[in-house]
Amino acid sequence: MITVRHLPFAQRGRHLIVLFFFSLVLLVSDFRGASFAVAAGPEAKIKGEFGPLHDWPIIPIAMMLMPDGRVFAYGTNTNGAQGSKMHYAIWDPSLGTGVDAFEVLPNTTETDIFCAGQAHIPASGQALILGGDALVNNRRNYANSDVNIFDPATDALIRQTQSMGFKRWYATAVTLPNGEHVVLGGRNDRFFKGTKTVPATVATYSPIPEVRAADGSWRTLTSAASDYAYGALGASSWFYPRAWVNPQGNLFILAHNGYMYNLNTSGDGVLTKYSNKIQSSQASLSSVMFAPGKILTIRKDRKAIVVDLNNAVKPIVSAAGFLAKDRQYGTATVLANGQVWVNGGSSTGNDLEGAALESELWDPGTNTWKTTASAATARLYHSASLLLPDGTVITGGGGAQGPLTQLNGEIYYPPYLFKTDESGEFALRPEIIDAPITQISWNQEFSVEASEDITRVTLVRAGAVTHTFDQETRFFDLPVAQAGSIVTVQSPVSPNLAPPGHYLLFVWNASGVPSVARIIQMG
């Protein structure tokens, strides 16, 4: 069992994983010797491979990648029961997946951050945690209006003095182009029929968005209230509303019922509804922004759709094929190459009967799906998946409530990490020798040097995932004019496309293999 502890700051490494390569059983090591084995077969070049199941000290219902490469996670206590008022966890991937790679810290804020909203604070790289759970008459799943910040420099979770104007449970927070945050949706009170000793309560919601300024102050978008876009209606649109900054600098909202909205967050806010809509979905299905202004959204009946926001008049909708499996509570993750990997989920909801162990990969270049590696265990409600700086994906959790209490995780190794022969061996990776170590701006040229010729440079925004949704992540291909060990590329042109924050910079060799990422700040 992993005990609650706090390692001194100086003992925590900041190195990223270095991969050493063996044949069928591959050893992954970092600079200090932490290691774990990965068994890969001849199909690894096509399907990728999962590493072994490993223990987690909590169920990682929510995960955020920090600027130092560590993962901040929260969701349950150390027994896997609902109760984020007690603990949160930090995982250092450079230490492997053993006990020493995890820290479990006491939550001293008096806020239960179970099912909170979350986003990165661009200037500092800190984690902004909004709302969460509350007890009313000893009944859970009400809401609070608290604001908390996790600081990776000290590993402290700190309650802020200024709270939101509304209580929010299952809200979405989005980083705006100016570094502010808008929070929308969430439930306030829950329905409870009451007992002889406990009074009944009626379900209420928080359909008015709010904006948090960089100084921590709040303003309410009173003119943008909507029960349909992010409130009680619209197929439970309050449930982690699907929202992103669009190329015009406003907020795009894709309601679970298929209606689409534009939210201008200036002043008191202006909400407009687009004339077109798409097939309905449900809150348990995933959506993700896979390219500038382009969203892949999974709808009912395994149907995938691309919503292109680059047209200022209205979104352009196109078909993106069908998944092989119905993946309620599965998660879509943008990989280092811009493809979208979807894992977990079940055709029967939060139930093992229809659980999908096989994962799937969508290629936006060909608009096709293929089945990829199978996991060791189901990932259902309250599971999450997050891209890591070494190009792998950590997937973990599930439970509280669920058929399994998943105090564990697995690491997925995508096909681009393997040799293209039948050996199942990891490919040799290029190494970034020199890249920006300070903040870069938009539409700025910068140089990158690697250990071999660079043929491609990609940029992925650090993720923040919970409840099948990672609204923070974005992907960019930075054109390389001519391959070489030193190349000059240009950053995205505006914060409307690439909101300020921290990004993973990958370089690729001629074999299509990525480096370990350099984490850079844009803003």
Query: If you consult CATH, what is the topology of the largest domain?
Result: Methylamine Dehydrogenase, Chain H
CATH class of the largest domain: Mainly Beta
Mean pLDDT over the residues? 92
User: Could you tell me the radius of gyration in angstroms?
Assistant: 22 Å
Q: What is the straight-line distance between the termini?
A: 41 Å
Q: How are the strands ordered across the major sheet?
A: 9-8-7-6-36-37
Largest sheet: 6 strands, antiparallel
Written description of the protein model:
The radius of gyration is 22 Å and the shape is globular. Strands 9-8-7-6-36-37 form a 6-stranded antiparallel sheet, with no helix packed on it. Strands 4, 5, 30, 31 and 32 form a 5-stranded antiparallel sheet that branches. The protein is mainly β. It has 2 domains: 9-417, 7 Propeller (Methylamine Dehydrogenase, Chain H); 432-522, Immunoglobulin-like. Helices cover 2% and strands 37% of the residues. The protein has 3 helices and 41 strands.
